[in-house]
Amino acid sequence: IMSAVAFDILPLKLHPFSQSTPTGLDCLGWKRCISSPVITDGALDKTALTDDVGSEEDLYEDFRSSNHRYGHPGGGGEQLAINELISDGSVVYAEALWDHVTMDDQELGFKAGDVIEVMDATNKEWWWGRILDSEGWFPASFVRLRVNQDEPMEDYPLKVEGGKEDDSSSGTRRFGMGQTTKDQMRTNVINEIISTERDYIKHLKDICEGYIKQCRKRADMFTEEQLKTIFGNIEDIYRCQKKFVKALEKKFNKDHPHLSEVGSCFLEYQTEFQIYSEYCNNHPNACMELSRLTKVNKYVYFFEACRLLQKMIDISLDGFLLTPVQKICKYPLQLAELLKYTNPQHRDFKDVEAALNAMKNVAQLINERKRRLENIDKIAQWQSSIEDWEGEDVLIRSSELIYSGELTKISHPQAKSQQRMFFLFDHQLVCCKKDLLRRDILYYKSRINMDDMEILDVEDGKDKDFNISVKNAFKLHCRDTEDVHLFCAKKPEHKQRWLKAFENERKQVQLDQETGFSITEVQKKQAMLNASKQHHTGKPKAVTRPYYDFLMRQKHPTLPTTLPQQQVFMLAEPKRKPSNFWQNISRLTPFRK
User: How many of the other CB atoms lie within 10 Å of CB of 547?
Assistant: First the structure.
C-alpha cells in the first residue's frame, strides 16, 4: 500500500483552472469565514473585477497571494477525518456511483454499486482502495462514502428484490433509547438525503449567482448562446430542486427522522427530474466550450474571480457543472439504501419502493441518451476509416449502429451477386466493399434510406422477381419507387439476426421521435472534426486509451494524472448493458491500415 510519503515523491502539477471534480455533494456549503469584495447587482464593480490595478488577473493574484483558499474536500476536514480513521485502524467504505473501467494494472476497476474499502485518501483526486484481493487507484469523484460505516460488510450491498429482505437480525437489535438498529440506519440515510439536498441547493445557487449572473454582466465576453451552451438549463434545475427540497422538508420528521415519509416527494417530482436529460446531453458541449474559452487567460481569471468572490470551494467551473449529472445518478442509490432499512410495515415503504423504480427509470432514460451521444464519436471515427466516402456524413441522419455483417447483394437486371459489408444505422443502411488484398480496408459503395423501406422475408427456393434460386434471403422494398433489393445471408441464423435488426431499427426511430432525442449540429461537427484530426495525425483507427496517462513508471504504485472533465462522468446503472458498437464493428472490420 502506498503511504502518504509517496505523495511527496510524486508532486502533482497545480493548474489555476484545475480539472478536478467534486468528491461529493456532502462537502459543499461548508462555512468559510473570510472577507472579500462583493459583486453588486448593477454594472460590474470596477474595484472587484477590473481596474483599480488593472484586470481580472490582478484580482485573481491578489486573492491567491492572500491565501484565500476554500479547500476542496480533498484538502479539508472530510479528507483529514477519513485518513485519521484509517490511521486509527478503522475500516472506511465507499460506494461506487459509476463504473470505473481499469485502464492500467495500477488502477482499481469496479462497477456502479460496488463497495470499496478506502485505504488511503491523502490525495484529493485519487484514492487507494481494495475490493476483495484487488488494490489500486480510483477517482475519488466516482464514489461516495457509505452512510452506515458500521454495517457488516457481508450485509452490504443488499440487492432488493420485490422490496423484501431478511430483517431477522438487524430489525430486532436495539440501538440507544429503545430504537432498533434498523431504525437508526434509516435515520442515517434520511439525514443524508436531507443534508445533501440542502448542500446541493447551495451549490446550484452559487453557480447561478456566482457565475451566470456575473457572466451576463459581461456582454463583451459572453453571448447568450455561449451561456446557454456552458450552463445549459441549470437555472431550471435550480428552480425544480428548490421546490423539491421544500417538499422534503415538509415530510422530514426532525424529532424522529426514521419516521419521515419522503418517498412520495420523489414520486411527485419524477417527471420534472427528466429535465436533467437535457442538461446531461448538453454537458459535453459545455466542456468543449469551456475548453475553448479557457485557452484565453482572461476567461481563466474571470471564472476564478467569480468562484473566489462567491466563496466557493476550490473546484474549477467544469467541476461544478458536473455535479447535477452526479446528483441524478445518486438518487437510485440513496433510495435503494433507504428501502433496505424501511420495514414493510412502515407507512413510507410502498412509496419508497415505487420511488426507487421511478428514479431508476429516469436514470436509465438519461443514461441511454448519454450512451447515444458517446456513440457519435465512434461513428465519426468509423466513417473516417472508410475510403472513397461519398455524400452526407452518417451523423446527419443517424446516431446509432444497430447491426452489421456480411451479405450477398443481388442486383437487377442480370441478377449479379456481390459480396458486401453492410452497416445498419437508424434511418440508413450503408454498403461497403472490402479491399481485395487488405481485407481490413473498406470502400464506400452506396446507402439505402430505411425510412422508405419495408422488409420482406423470402422463402428458400426460386425467386420470381429475380428468376434465381435463393437461400436465407430477404428483400428491401421501396414503397415510393417500387425498387427491390435482394440479400442473402450465409446461414439461417444470420438471416434471423438481420430481420430482428431491421425490426429494432424501426423501434429505435419511433422511440427517438417519442422522446425527442436528437443530436445538435455542434455535436455532429465536433465529432467529425475530432475524427478528421485523428485520421490526419495517423493515429490507429481502433479503440485506444486517449485520456489515461500517468506521472511516471516506478516499481511502487504511481498516482494517475487528473482525468479530462469531459471523460470523467459516466451515467451508468449498476448493471448497465454495455454498448455493442465496437463489438459489432471490430469483430468484422478492423480499422488498422
Answer: 12
